[in-house]
Amino acid sequence: MSLETVNFEIFCLEPGDRVLDLGCGEGRHAITACLVQDVHAVGVDMSFADLETTRSRFAEFHQRCASRNLSLAVANGAHLPFIDASFDKVICAEVLEHVPDYHAMLAEIRRVLKPGGALAVSVPRYGPEWICWRLSDAYHEVEGGHVRIFHRKQLKQAVEAVGLRLYGAHYAHALHSPYWWLKCLFWSKADDTWLVRQYHRFLVWDLMKAPAVTQLLERILNPLMGKSLVMYFADATRVK
């Protein structure tokens, strides 16, 4: 199991879709896309090591995904090695907060997205992220760390400026917000702090077991303290 931020009931995939997971990391959304639908997924990231992990994890699902295709590439999101209008769907989850020129990346997403295509994008939510920044400078000053905190309106306007329109949004991972607050509070010794270690054990247990009580609790808390803001956009010509 993996921690998906994108809800594939909202971000519907169609058989035969070409799906780009931009900044795929270790492949959580690219692999899930192949599991939920007969698509050709392409994972792109700057980290070769993360792509190797993605390849290894995808191999574990070979029997379930034998007829499906996952391609991987090391590439810069602001200069994608794909022709115009080559993807039906694009996923960009927890990436834009790391990118100095995120407008250039959004322009590239629009370039490779087919007419009528759709984008799912997520970033850390302003409130929980603001608390992290106040608790620890090191949290966002590490190499490759977060360079900005997005306001919801700011992200919406930036994506709509490239010709896409919002059709859905929600918050996710409320139970993860306290974990990151604790990590930031005890940053220099977080790995040795009993409370941080216990909360991490709880999150792993929740991920593996998915008990009904924590699923319900997260749905209740997401509007209040969800760690991630998730937004869904489609070609402006198809959204009224």
Give a concise summary.
This protein has a domain at 76-238: 3-Layer(aba) Sandwich (Rossmann fold).
Textual characterization of the structure:
Strand 2, helix 2 (48-59) and strand 3 (69-74) form a beta-alpha-beta unit. This protein is α/β, with parallel strands linked by helices and 240 residues long. 39% of the residues lie in helices and 22% in strands. Helix 4 (126-135) runs parallel beside helix 7 (177-185). The chain has nine helices and seven strands. The radius of gyration is 18 Å and the shape is globular. The chain has a domain at 76-238: 3-Layer(aba) Sandwich (Rossmann fold). Strands 3-2-1-4-5-7-6 form a seven-stranded mixed beta sheet, sandwiched between helices. The relative contact order is 0.14.
List keywords for this structure.
single chain; 240 residues; alpha/beta; Rossmann fold; 7-stranded mixed sheet; 9 helices; 39% helix
Strand order of the largest sheet: 3-2-1-4-5-7-6
- Helix fraction, binned, reads 25-40%
Radius of gyration: 18 Å
Q: What's the CATH topology label of the domain at 76-238?
A: Rossmann fold
Cα-to-Cα separation, first versus last residue: 36 Å
Q: The biggest beta sheet, please?
A: 7 strands, mixed
Specify the overall morphology.
globular
Order of helices and strands: EHEHEEHEHHHEHHHE
Name of the level-1 CATH class of the domain at 76-238: Alpha Beta
Number of strands: 7
Structural class: alpha/beta
Q: At the fourth CATH level, what is the homologous superfamily of the domain at 76-238?
A: Vaccinia Virus protein VP39
Strand proportion, as a percent range, falls in: 15-25%
Continuous helix count: 9
CATH arch. level architecture of the domain at 76-238: 3-Layer(aba) Sandwich
Mean pLDDT: 94
Low-confidence stretches: none
